[in-house]
Amino acid sequence: MNDPTTPPESPAPAPATGWERGTMERLLFATLKEQRAQRRWRTFVRLAWLAFFIFLFWTLSSRGSTGADKLTPHTAVIEIDGEIGSGNEASAEFVVAAAKAAFEDAGAQGVVLLINSPGGSPVQAGIINDELRRLKAKYKKPLYAVVEESCASAAYYIAVSADRIFVDKASMVGSIGVLMEGFGFTGLMEKLGIERRLMTAGENKGFLDPFSPQTERQREHAQEMLNHVHKQFIDVVRTGRGKRLKEVPELFSGLFWTGQQAIELGLADQLGNLDYVAREVIKAEELVDYTRHENVAEKLAKRFGASIGEGAVKALRTMQPLR
Question: For position 266, what pLDDT does the model report?
């Protein structure tokens, strides 16, 4: 006789049917397969990064090799191509490194600056000029400049460090001047009813802000700075060219001239190209290029570093402030 207080026994779970068991097995196998694939992918990524860093290290350690016997007589060539500025191939870092390698090589009978540049940073040009003059004095080797299309502004600042400057009759040479450029939008803002709210500590801190009016004192200060840098440029040209200059009133006005006119003004010495200088002046026809180029590995390294930096900045921006 059953006790009415005793609950009825629960029925035993029914055994899994065949299709349920098959489904569970397939899910388990799919999970294991996905985990194995993820492990393989992580291993592959790690090996790929390892290979990249090995390649990067090898490339950086082997850069700068000219591939020529240093004892073989040759003409060392350094290209100054494009805008002169930090971060460009025509930068003080690259040009000075190339110049040091060229002057140090026993086989280099002379060094040629092959110039095709519209100018750029006077700071970078000044560093290059100073270092080239130092290397000339230390190693007692001749330095020549050969102008192709143009040698203007900061490029000419560099060129006057050479013992002689060779040009093509149609080259563009000169532009001995300094500029500072910008825009002013104060009149447009007034017409549009836009108010500029700029806060500074120091009454002249924002004097180059294009959305704020420029006072006469600020304009005079900027002009004084330009005049000072211009005088430095003129002094470097006079030191480099000496009595060869014919100082007409327009010489230091920022104008530029053809190669033939530059010779007449004493800004250049004679017509001639790279092969002519190597063959007839230096007397070493073999050319060895010492130009420092940014290689693929360095470009990748910079891009990789920039990506890391961008990620760090984003991470910092998303962090919650301390409370």
Answer: 97
